[in-house]
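User: Could you write out the 3D structure of this protein bound to adenosine-5'-triphosphate? I've included everything you need below.
Assistant: Certainly. Input first, then the structure.
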Amino acid sequence: MGLGGIFSSDMAIDLGTANTLVYIKGKGIVLNEPSVVAYHVKDGKKQVLAVGEDAKLMLGRTPGSIEAIRPMRDGVIADFDSAEEMIKHFIRKVHKHTTFSKPKILVCVPHGATPVEKRAIRQSVLSAGARRAGLVAEPIAAAIGAGMPITDPTGNMVVDIGGGTTEVAVLSLGDIVYARSVRVGGDRMDEAIISYLRRNMNLLIGESTAERIKTTIGTARMPDDGRGASLLVRGRDLLNGVPKEIEITGAQVAEALAEPVQQICDAVMQALETTPPDLAADIVDRGVMLTGGGALLGELDLSLREQTGLSISIADQSLNCVALGTGKALEYEKQLRHVIDYDS
Ligand SMILES: Nc1ncnc2c1ncn2[C@@H]1O[C@H](COP(=O)(O)OP(=O)(O)OP(=O)(O)O)[C@@H](O)[C@H]1O
Ligand SMILES: [Mg+2]
């Protein structure tokens, strides 16, 4: 084995709206952190203060001199400079041998990304220190990571519900037959909870509180007892401006989330209607696979089953599927070469 074999750590990156994961060839996932960069701003100059987990703790809590940014929106780069800072930081954190060789890096992109957006992602990976950058379509990565038989001549439907987008795709023979990306995901759910509490309870809460409500008592379906689990939530009373604490219930969260949940269901229905009949029949047989963090929303699988009549599964390690799938493309590049795009 040459030096390159020993020292270069080729890697796969899932550059998500909410979380970035890094997979190293031969090792698996070695990093999983929020996609957030915090800067110290002084005299108009910005200096990176924290990236990832530490930076996320600062979101919504920053004084005037500190700015916390999420570089990705809707699955694509919204702030080029901070995206590059973030990628560099994470690569440095996992890649200890940059002096010996530059790594090859695969990174996944939403199916709906434009050529300009794809170029931006490729460029930021290259300037962060990659020798070569390959792109993998996110729905394919998600399906591989969920263990679906994507190279078979049958229709497979995967629904990846991330922070920024939900991507619905039908795959057959290793490629995308139909894909649609809607800008609805975990972020939209958090916003829906914030606006519900503001409108109905005069309570102002921040994004991290909304996310905590969603992940603890959030549900896509009205609870059978009409109430569900409950949680004490603190925020600011909009009537008198002081902090207050109220109890909110699963039923209220279900009401708040009704719209984003419906939009996800609609995207699945639309995919079914547009899929060629034989492949649609395969999907009826095999069911639908959910991946991404949004797949973990309480009873979302049940709600989708009720509305579509299809059987719905949640992938094991749903938050890791895209990184695992992109990693697999790296490990088995010979067999999976056709899913990697090195030069668009
Ligand atoms: N138990 C849970 N219930 C509901 N939502 C959850 C749960 N756990 C995580 N999430 C949400 O999943 C989202 C993150 O998922 P994921 O890491 O798949 O997104 P991403 O890949 O960063 O985004 P995208 O694919 O859109 O770029 C966040 O909005 C998070 O709040
Ligand atoms: Mg994702």
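The radius of gyration is 21 Å.
User: Perfect, thank you.
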